[in-house]
Amino acid sequence: MVNAAVLGHGLAAGTMLVWGTTFISTKVLLDSFTPLEILFSRFSIGFLALCLLLPRRLPLHPWREERWFIGAGLTGVTLYFLGENIALNHTTASNVGVIVGSAPFFIAIADRLWGSHRPLHMSFFAGFICALTGIALLSFNSLEISFNPAGDLLALAASAVWGIYTLCMRRIGAMGCNMGLATRRVFGYGLLGMLPFMYFLDVSFKPAAYLEPVNAANLLFLGFGASALCFFTWNFAVKLIGPAQSGPYLYAAPAVTVTAAVLILGEELTLQIFCGIVLTMLGLLISELPHLKACLKLQAARQG
Question: Where are the domains of the chain?
Answer without folding.
Answer: 4-303
